[in-house]
Design goal:
The chain has about 500 residues and is α/β, with parallel strands linked by helices. The protein folds into two domains: about 270 residues, 3-Layer(aba) Sandwich (Aldehyde Dehydrogenase, Chain A, domain 1); about 180 residues, Aldehyde Dehydrogenase, Chain A, domain 2 (3-Layer(aba) Sandwich), CATH 3.40.309. About 35% of the residues lie in helices and about 25% in strands. It has a seven-stranded mixed sheet, sandwiched between helices. β2 and β3 form a beta hairpin. The radius of gyration is 25 Å and the shape is globular. The termini are far apart. It binds nicotinamide-adenine-dinucleotide (NAD). The site of nicotinamide-adenine-dinucleotide has 27 residues, from α8.
């Protein structure tokens, strides 16, 4: 490997370590199609070191006053805002999404950090006076200890920020294992957190792939695992972490449908479909990858989609006029292109073929331009599988009921949306649909940070979503205390305690 490459090593105890890891991985610059950095591929030793440091740091951090923790969160928000451009450049350089999109994901991460500044309020317990004569009962929320977050490549800032601001504000220490595909932003976030006043060791970053994940899942001093990634890995993480006695939430993949009813504003629906299907090259868990045309809207919708797709510019995400950047790695480009071919082979109507686009000056980049299929059937792999690329498939059905049944028969239940002018139809949709996050005339129904983010079915294993009160509940455990401060005990009484006495 080229010795001139920049190096991304673990961030443990407040700074980047300089140990030689068992091996190094490649980090690509996907627009240039070249290796840009090397990343430490840690295993059990790095995880153990980070967890030990975290355990030590947590002992003091858990008793840090709420107001002081709030102050750290306020400083974190300020510093992330100050370093927004630098973070966005790291994201675009390693992920490929446009700088504007990278700025958007940082904004969404910041929203969670702002939510975490409310920690003195969020940690409040309950108090009941006189639960029995002279008895009071109250509940308190306490941190879990050392908790870990394992995150996907597609949001290298936002998804870590869904987790660690709330986790540390609750008094935990945190070990982040970011995606090895775009690891740099994780280190900058950890550095900013230390500069914000978080004691060294409270937030650590261990880089690597499956061996680092397995070590976290098995480590006896890791109390909880928060995972976001693809469904097969989410399922594995959920089962394995539970087997090791840990609290676990594991968010998985998606196949999100946008249903267009005959009475919808078709221009608004087409705008929404194109934005939500091709934004970030479709590498979003809330991307819309299926358009469901109900009744006779298919032709008119198709025409509008084609017209809008024709105006999109696929190029290096660093250029201001770019709408859509490259895919993250050559392997992913090959996988997505393979799905396009599978769609053609299965007989779907390839309306816009984005394969092998020419991008001036970036001929080696991992580009695939927006691709549209029509007349797709539910048995085709381009419909059943999460492609995670800029490929939108359109199916046509006769009724809203048929659309709902089709969505409900799928494995995933992350997000979905309906476009209509009918309140009654929208209400039927939101009532019957088996999906965790629902939009009405909204392209990507991502909840604001004071509501939880999480899908249903194979899009979320566990019952706790990310952030919002779910986040606070996930990263704390409740203790219920019963007290009696009376002058006399009332004597020996062998009866079971009863509330009425
Ligand atoms: P991924 O599952 O490949 O990787 C996620 C994390 O798991 C990474 O940190 C990776 O290093 C680790 N990992 C990968 N293979 C592993 C293995 N065999 N054993 C243990 N750990 C392993 O996901 P990705 O490709 O980085 O991200 C894209 C996926 O994430 C898509 O499926 C997308 O829908 C999903 N996603 C879901 C949400 C959500 O909120 N539901 C949000 C973002 C992304």
């Amino acid at each position: 490997m080229n010795d001139q490459l920049s190096t991304v090593n673990h961030f443990i105890g407040g700074s980047v370590v300089d140990d030689e890891p068992p091996s190094w991985g490649h980090v690509f610059d996907p627009a240039r199609g070249a290796v840009a950095a090397r990343v430490a591929m840690g295993g059990a030793a790095a995880v153990d070191r980070a967890v030990k440091v975290a355990l030590d740091a947590q002992a003091g951090w858990r008793d840090t006053p709420l107001g002081a923790r709030q102050q750290v969160m306020l400083q974190l928000v300020r510093l992330v805002e100050e370093h927004r451009d630098e973070l966005a450049e790291l994201i675009t350089g390693e992920h490929g999404k446009t700088l504007a999109d990278a700025q958007g994901e940082i904004g969404a991460g910041l929203d969670v950090a702002k939510f975490a500044t409310g920690i003195p309020h969020l940690m409040k317990g309950e108090f009941s006076e006189n639960v029995s004569r002279g008895f009071d009962t109250y509940s308190i929320r306490q941190p879990l200890g050392v908790v870990a977050g394992i995150t996907p490549f597609n949001f290298p800032v936002m998804v870590p920020m869904w987790m660690f601001p709330i986790a540390v504000a609750c008094g935990n220490a945190f070990v982040l294992k970011p995606s090895e595909k775009d690891p740099s932003a994780g280190n900058l976030l950890a550095d900013l957190a230390v500069r914000a006043g978080l004691p060294p060791g409270v937030l650590n970053v261990v880089h690597g792939g499956a061996p680092a994940v397995e070590a976290l899942l098995a480590h006896p001093d890791v109390a909880a695992i928060s995972f976001v990634g693809s469904t097969p890995i989410a399922r594995h993480v959920y089962a394995t972490a539970a087997q090791h006695g840990k609290r676990v939430q594991a968010l998985g993949g998606a196949k999100n449908h946008l249903v267009v009813l005959p009475d919808a504003d078709l221009d608004a629906a087409a705008d929404a479909l194109v934005s939500a299907a091709y934004g970030s090259a479709g590498e979003r868990c809330m991307a819309i990858s299926v358009a469901v045309a109900v009744g006779d809207v298919g032709e008119a919708l198709r025409e509008r989609l084609v017209q809008r797709i024709g105006k999109l510019r696929t190029a290096d995400g660093r250029e201001q006029s770019t709408d859509m950047g490259p895919l993250v790695t050559p392997e992913h480009l090959a996988r997505v292109s393979g799905y396009v071919q599978a769609g053609v082979d299965a007989g779907a109507d390839l309306v816009v073929d984005g394969r092998d686009p020419h991008v001036d000056g970036r001929e080696d980049g991992f580009f695939l331009a927006p691709t549209l299929f029509d007349h797709v059937r539910p048995d085709m792999t381009i419909y059943t599988d999460e492609i995670f690329g800029p490929v939108l498939v359109m199916l046509r059905v006769d009724t809203l009921d048929e659309a709902i049944d089709m969505i409900n028969s799928g494995d995933h239940g992350n997000g979905t949306s309906v476009f209509t002018r009918s309140g009654a139809a929208a209400r039927t949709f939101q009532n019957r649909i088996e999906v965790g996050m629902v939009g009405v005339n909204v392209p990507i129904p991502v909840p604001v940070p004071y509501y939880p983010f999480g899908g249903w079915k194979q899009s979320l294993f566990g019952e706790s979503g990310q952030y919002g009160e779910d986040g606070v509940r996930f990263f704390t455990r409740r203790k219920v205390v019963t007290t009696r401060w009376a002058e006399s005990t009332g004597g020996v009484d062998l009866r079971f305690p009863a509330a009425q006495r």
